[in-house]
Each structure stands twice: as C-alpha cells, then as structure tokens.
Design brief:
Largest sheet: 5 strands, mixed
Distance between the termini: 77 Å
Oligomer: single chain
Number of helices: 6
Shape: elongated
Number of strands: 13
Bound molecules: zinc ion
Structural class: alpha+beta
Helix content: 25-40%
Strand order of the largest sheet: 10-11-9-13-12
Number of domains: 2
C-alpha cells in the first residue's frame, strides 16, 4: 500500500513538472476571443477579453444615466454624499455629485466636458483600463440644511419629548426623520438637544412634524399639546414656531 502511494506521489510530482511550464506558456500566448489580439493580460470573470474589448463591453464603474446635482439656490452649497459642501466651482459641484459612485472603489476619472444642466464626459481609469463615458446632468435647485436651519426660511417645529423611558420613543423619531429626509427635499432634522426633562427635536417643516407625530401616536401612548409662538421677523413677516409637547405616559 505504502509502495503504491509513493508510486502515485512520484507520478503526481512528474505530472506537475510537465503541466506547470505548459500553463505559463499559455499565459504568455493569451489571445482575446473577441478581436483575436495577442495580449499580456485578459480581463473579466467569465468571458475573458483584452483590455480594450473588456472596456467596450463592460462598464468600469456603475454610473446613473442621469446625474442629479443638488445645489442650494441661496448659498450655492452642493450635496456631496449626504453632506452639504460650501460654494465651489462647476467642476467641484460635479465632483461632489459623483463622489458616491467612486466611493470605496479603486478607480479615478478626468472630466473632459462639464455642464450642470446638459451632460458631462468622463475618462474613467480602473486597473490600467480606460473608458470614456457620457452622463446626463440634472441640476436641482433646493435649499440646503444650513440655510433652512439658520436663516429661518420656514416656520420650524420644536418637538418637546418628555416623560420616562424615552429611549425607544426618541429612537423611533430619529428613524422617521431620516426616512422623511430621504423622501422630501425640504424635510430636515435640524437639531436635537437634551434638556432637563427630556429631548427637544427641531424640524424644518410643519409637514415633517405631522408625519413624525402620526408615527409616534400609532406606536406609543402619548399626550400631545400644540402651541404656536413668534420667534422673530423675516422680510416684515413674523416667523412662527410650532411647539409640540409630547408626554410619554407611563405604561
Ligand atoms: Zn479584444
Ligand atoms: Zn444653502
């Protein structure tokens, strides 16, 4: 038995010696099955192609057909992967809007043509490959979080959350706020402050506060009291803050 095993081990070793050089040979003579060109390296998982065929047949980076560029009409800030960045050049606004598509991947690009309201042309670089892409651009004029929060553009709402065991309740409010922020351009959770008796949430719109309160009232046993208060003037008009006092009843 041992003899037999050592016989096979020898054969296996000989076999490896024979096969290995052949493998290297094949690597040196790689032909692209699409264009027939002889190349040093083939790209792709299933169908391996030369660099230029691969870049013709595959997108090097997942990009949308139309790129949304959200620009604040008051201050010129641009939304960059969820954060508002300060007033900048046209190129930077495009770079900010593209940033989420190039996050965590080993790829770069040069902008060959820039326009906020028509299209951009990019020269993408990835793993030694190059690809030119054209993406439509769609500039959206909105009001950024900063301008809403500090300039008092809207009547803001303050949710005063009071009572005991507030962790679950305030957790639900934060969750609801973040889905509303994604759904609506005007909705923002502007601030959250701990006070002696509980937590205050500052919301950008009345609509947001109504949506949040609908969710809270469905899930929790609460007493709600609303009041309105003038918090300042803007352009001769009073700025009104709606305060919603929410008391979490003991269950
Ligand atoms: Zn090819
Ligand atoms: Zn702004």
């Amino acid at each position: 038995m041992l003899l037999l095993l050592s016989f096979f081990a020898d054969r296996f070793y000989l076999l490896m010696l024979n096969v290995f050089p052949v493998d290297i040979c094949m690597d040196l003579n790689s032909f692209c099955p699409r264009c027939g060109q002889e190349v040093d390296r083939l790209y792709g998982d299933e169908r391996k192609l030369c660099g230029s065929c691969y870049a013709e047949k595959n997108d090097l980076v997942d990009l949308p057909d139309s790129l949304d560029i959200e620009v604040c009409k008051k201050c010129g800030r641009t939304k960059c992967d969820g954060v508002w960045r300060l007033k900048t050049s046209k190129e930077s606004k495009i770079n900010y809007s593209l940033s989420k598509y190039f996050k965590d991947i080993d790829a770069g690009y040069d902008l060959l043509s820039v326009s906020l309201e028509d299209k951009i042309i990019l020269q993408i670089r990835k793993h030694g490959l190059k690809q030119q892409r054209t993406v439509e651009t769609n500039k959206e004029e909105v009001i950024c979080c900063e301008c809403k929060g500090f300039q008092g553009e809207y009547a803001k709402t303050k949710l005063q959350i009071r009572g005991e065991n507030l962790l679950e309740l305030t957790g639900l409010i934060e969750k609801r706020c973040s889905t509303l922020e994604e759904e609506n351009h005007d909705d923002f959770l502007l601030d959250k402050r701990s006070t002696d008796g509980g937590i205050d949430f500052f919301l950008s719109t009345e609509h947001m506060s109504q949506q949040v309160m609908d969710t809270v009232c469905k899930e929790f046993n609460v007493d709600v009291d609303r009041s309105y208060k003038q918090i300042g003037h803007r352009g001769g008009q009073p700025v009104i803050q709606n305060t919603v006092l929410v008391r979490h009843s003991k269950d």
